[in-house]
Amino acid sequence: MRLLALILALFLLPKAAQAGLEDKIAAAAPSGVVLVLDDKGNALVAQNADRDFVPASVAKIVTAWLALEVLGSDYRFKTRFYLDNDRVLYVRGGGDPFLVSEELELLAADLVAATGKEPFAGLVVDASYYPADLRVPGIEDTNKSYDAPNVALAANFNTIHAVRKGKTVRSAEKQTPITPLAASQFRKRGPKGRGRISLPQDDLTVSARYAGELIAAFVEKAGGSVEGEVTTGTVPETLEPVHVHSQSRPLSEIVKLLLLGSNNYIANQIFLEIGAHRLGGPVSVEKSLQVAETIFAEHGIKDAIELKEGSGLSPDNRFTTQGMAKVLEQFAPHAELLPKTKAGSRYKTGTIPGERALAGYVNTSKYGLVPFVISLGGKTGKTRFRLLRTIEKGL
């Protein structure tokens, strides 16, 4: 009888502990959506798990998964350069999301080495890989850095980081020279003092010309020069590339930085490349959604993930908890790309007005890393992490 009692106690102990965990979660967030699955897909915790939720930036996990599926972890974005008989330099943007100043310095040095130090007669930016009328849902026409427009060629995430004092504008980054266009834009749209602004949505040629000005500045730093104007146009069909710059960071590294910094511009640049890679350029939101829906259907979650764009800014993105859990199951080999808690869990936050989400892999003593989804309403950013810590301790 004692042996039987011991066996029953050992059998009932995990269920009692699980019930206690669910009680703690319900006490902390009674209306919250919480789902935790074991490594076989069985529910360890399920509270309001039949509700769908607005993922906010948790959608970036979906974008990361799709990108690694379609493009591959070692994919490199490319920027192509052409030279005509008059030594006019043409730059064709390929949607590289990480043309930061340090990358432009590498690019310019290789370009000058490939073409020589004789001055360029002008610089023409070809941004036709992204249509001029491209608009991504959720991105608004503001000067906020998180609303930076998506374009084929952009520098520093299509933003300007500067300091304004009176009419004087200087760069806020030692690695980034201030250009005439950057100064005029910051005087027009920037705050007093230090700040970071996006470039405008209503004239996307501004983004292209600013990227061209920065390239010209780094070409000069590398020993070359651009004597003529920086303009926009298209590459003549007769020209072949004289230099092709491959992004120094593979996609896996860019994805890791995306998930850490939650940059909306990077997310949608990657998302747009998914469609163009499969269906051909130019890019479009519709092409990427078509590819995404095909992949969702292959995994049985076509009706469980409603995606409008790749960053999570759109409030019309809606996921079911089971759909998100299925994505996490597929993304599990790349879990190390997500930020980590002190207890070893991997996570991604999502925050838009009225919505606070958290999803990833909770580190448990019994099951190891297993998928979890948390969604709360209102101003509950700290509560979602308290729930995660409760789950870490309870499983």
How far do the termini sit from each other? 30 Å
Q: Main sheet: which strands, in order across?
A: 2-1-16-15-14
The CATH topology of the largest domain comes to Beta-lactamase
In DSSP terms, counting alpha (H) and pi (I) runs of 4 or more, how many helices?
10
- The unreliable regions are 5-13
Give the DSSP E fraction (strand runs of 2 or more residues): 15-25%
Radius of gyration: 24 Å
Looking at the overall shape, the CATH architecture of the largest domain is 3-Layer(aba) Sandwich
The SSE string, one letter per element, is HEEEHEEHEEEHEHEEHHHEEHEEEH
- What's the helical proportion of residues? 25-40%
Mean pLDDT: 94
CATH class of the largest domain: Alpha Beta
CATH superfamily of the largest domain: DD-peptidase/beta-lactamase superfamily
| Tally of separate domains | 2
> What is the β-strand count?
16
Oligomeric state of the chains present here: single chain
Largest sheet: 5 strands, antiparallel
What structural class should be given to the helix and strand makeup?
alpha+beta
